[in-house]
Structure formats: structure tokens, C-alpha cells
Amino acid sequence: MFDAAVLSSSWLTGFTVCLSLIASIGAQNLYVLRQAVQGEHVRACVAWCVASDALLVALGVAGMARLLAGAPTLALWLRLGGALFLLAYGLLAWHRALFAADAGPRADGARVARGWLGVVGGLAVITLFNPHVYLDTVLLIGSIGARHEGALKWIFVLGAACASLTWFALLAWAGRRLQGLFARPRAWRMLDGLTGAMMLLLAWWVWQGT
């Protein structure tokens, strides 16, 4: 059995490591922020993000991190795929900013609402089809968690899940606070333009890391 100090140390390690990584600007964070501003199925988005983060960290702790670490060619292809994914996401955001007629609410304030399945499905694609996610969440966080002994590995995963819940709940709260600002279509175009620039910068950073 482990005493309370050891348990809390493993939990805190998982919390701080996960929070330090997911708090950076990324496609998933920007998607959740956008949904929070729109007020569309925000709880479902938060639930998906927390569940997927916990699952990916758990897979890394259970051994996938070791598998990726021992396959440098696979890691290289994941980095290349992540750079291309971020590049495509950034260009799509710029396309919305420059050409899309539905970048935000229409002049009469109306907008077409999406069902929760479509919203969460889009988030799932962004999460699971971004190769760079596996390097950050599975390889990096998972390899740190795998260093813990026995049941402490799963305390680490619990800490990571708590960090994910804290971050995405704060992101959802921030999005709701910004709803008044984004009542104008021009604000949406500015957000998409900024999103595109950030994604292209991240794509360049990931590419340089290969």
C-alpha cells in the first residue's frame, strides 16, 4: 500500500504535466472555444476531451509510449502527419475568414445549429486524426506516467484527467464570457484569421522538429 503523500505526489505529477501541455494553443482547444462562444453542446465537447485525454494517457502508461519510443521511423511519420494536419487546419480557418459566408451569425442574428453528434464528431476527428496528439499525449505524458510503480500509474492518469477537466471547463467558461463580443460576424473572421496564423506557426514548429 502507498501512503497519502506518495498518492498525492503521483496525482499532482499527472495533473501538472498534462495541464502544461494541453494549455497551449492547439486545434482541439480552439474548436472547444468556438463551440463555447456559439453555445453549442459545450458539455458534450468537454466530456469528449476529458475522456479522450484520459484514454490516450492511459494507453501511453500501459505500454504504447514505450512502443512509440522504440520506433523512431513511426515517430517521424507522426510528426510529418501532424505538421500536415495543422497546415490543413490553418488553411481551412483562413478560407473561412476570407470567403465563408457563415463564419458567424447572419445579419439577423440567426445561425444554423448543429446536432451534438455532428459537433462531437468533428471534435473527434480533430482529436484522433491529428498525429501530433499521439506524440504529446501518448508518448510524452504516457512515458512520464509509466515510470510510476504499480497502481501509482493510474493515480497519475487520474491526475491527468483532472487537469483536462479543469482546463476545458475554464475554456468553456471563457467562451461563454466572450459571446457578446462574437455577436458580430467580423469578430468571427478575426478569430478564424488568428486561428489560421497559429496553426501555420505550429505546423512550422512541428516540421522543424522532424
TrEMBL record:
The chain crosses the membrane at residues 12-33, 45-68, 74-94, 115-134, 154-175, 187-207. Keywords: Cell membrane, Membrane, Transmembrane, Transmembrane helix. PANTHER family: ARGININE EXPORTER PROTEIN ARGO (PTHR30086), ARGININE EXPORTER PROTEIN ARGO-RELATED (PTHR30086:SF20). It is a multi-pass membrane protein. It is found in: Cell membrane. It comes from Diaphorobacter limosus. It comes from the Bacteria. Pfam families: LysE. Its main location: membrane. This is LysE family transporter.
